[in-house]
Design goal:
The chain has six helices and two strands, in the order αββααααα. The chain is mainly α. It has a single domain, classed as Orthogonal Bundle (Cytochrome Bc1 Complex, Chain D, domain 2), CATH 1.10.760. Helix 1 crosses helix 2, helix 3 packs across helix 6 and helix 5 packs across helix 6. The protein starts with a helix and ends in a 7-residue tail after the last helix.
């Protein structure tokens, strides 16, 4: 319900960085030498295993079935409209998304996942549901519930769908 199957299968064959500090971000943080900023201790990260073509297809099939019975994502929640000229500004300035997420592909997000390939990676209805209420998916997630209007959620989702960085795959 979260990933696009084609992306997931390709990623399982050649995993790339989505979160700079991995899923357990706080466990990979270390103070910089000059104590002015935190950095990622890449030595504490476990690289994701690469799967062969047949194994990645089987794993993708199994993973795509997870969560379907939880009713977390409403089919048709994304209205498939154009994001409009304000959508990028909503992401980068007005709603604070760029504080945690990067829209540029290749080196992970900040504390949240990189979104430079969100249009290839994530299903639109999942994005709408997650932006509206991330705690519904994980009550301990750092992403806040922002109380955005449906129009802003639709614009942000539309913008994220335009992000299809594929060089890292």
């Amino acid at each position: 319900m979260k990933f696009n199957r084609e992306w997931l299968e390709a990623w399982l064959q050649n995993p790339t960085t989505i979160r700079p500090g991995g899923v357990m971000y706080a466990k990979a943080i270390k103070a910089s030498a000059d104590k002015t900023a935190d950095t990622i201790d890449t030595g504490k990260l476990t690289p994701h295993v690469k799967l062969g073509k047949a194994d990645s297809a089987a794993a993708a099939d199994a993973l795509m079935k997870l969560g379907a019975d939880l009713n977390l994502v409403q089919k048709g929640a994304f209205k498939n409209g154009s994001p409009g000229p304000m959508a990028k500004m909503l992401f980068s300035k007005l709603r604070g998304c760029s504080s945690c997420h990067s829209a540029k592909g290749g080196d992970g997000g900040r504390s949240g996942p990189e979104l430079g390939d969100a249009g290839s990676r994530l299903q639109p209805d999942f994005m709408v549901a997650y932006i509206n209420n991330p705690q519904k998916f994980d009550p301990h997630i750092w992403m806040p519930t922002l109380g955005l209007t449906d129009a802003d959620v639709q614009k942000l989702t539309g913008y994220l769908l335009t992000l299809k960085h594929t060089e890292a795959q």
